[in-house]
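Pipeline run #58 for the internal structure catalog. This entry was flagged by the ingest filter as a single-chain record with no existing model, so it goes straight to prediction. Upstream metadata was stripped on purpose; only the residue string is passed forward. Reviewer on rotation: M.T. Logging verbosity set to normal.
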Amino acid sequence: MAFASGCGRSSPSPVRLSVRASLFFTIALLSAGIARAQTLAENETTCVSPDFTAVTPDIRISACSAVIQSGQVTGQNLATAYLWRGIAYNEKNDFDSGIKDFNAALGLNPNFAGPYYDLGWAYDAKGDYDTAIKDCSKAIQLSPSADAYTSRAGAEFAKGDYAAAIQDETAAITLGPSDAAGVYGTRCFLRAITGDLKNALADCNQAFALLPGNPGATQYPRLHLFEDEQRRRGDRRL
């Protein structure tokens, strides 16, 4: 029996099947490669996201770990992935893991200010204030920032070096901190405990003006009690 000619349906030839199968296989491989690339890109975005509400520490650690372990990221980008994973560990109070990641970042770029700043955070939380001050000082040397100054001030305060802490809070103010009310409030407290009540009250008023709803603001009016007591005693500094 002869096969019908024309436009009727006929069985595809083995050669055509082979070509079609190869084409589908190639497309599948390309699609898988694109998916892998997108996954890495998504992990990179999540790893360094500044949105600390949407990106929880565990989500960030998972994303940064995928970036680090991919073998496709090197140099400064890899250092940045270690930095952000370390930040996530710090958020979880796993400061030892954070310290390891910050040091890994510095091993890739010794002049990277970020890891020094976050090492200061970790060592301050661990109670190693001298190391915290040293690391914050290095961060300030490499890239002065209000956050680095306030972080160092926290360690100086913990050591009882109030004068140094006041100096650093002042330096932070000159750099325009994002939480200016908080910095003024902290300097207010530091000045109060050192007896500089006049300037402490000025700082408290500035904190009120910048952020009336500051949670710590309810403590500031108590300084007026100190002021009244000093006036009663005839302290001319006021």
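catalog note: Residues 14-47 form the longest helix (34 residues).
catalog note: The CA atoms of residues 4 and 113 lie 78 Å apart.
status: ready for reviewer M.T.
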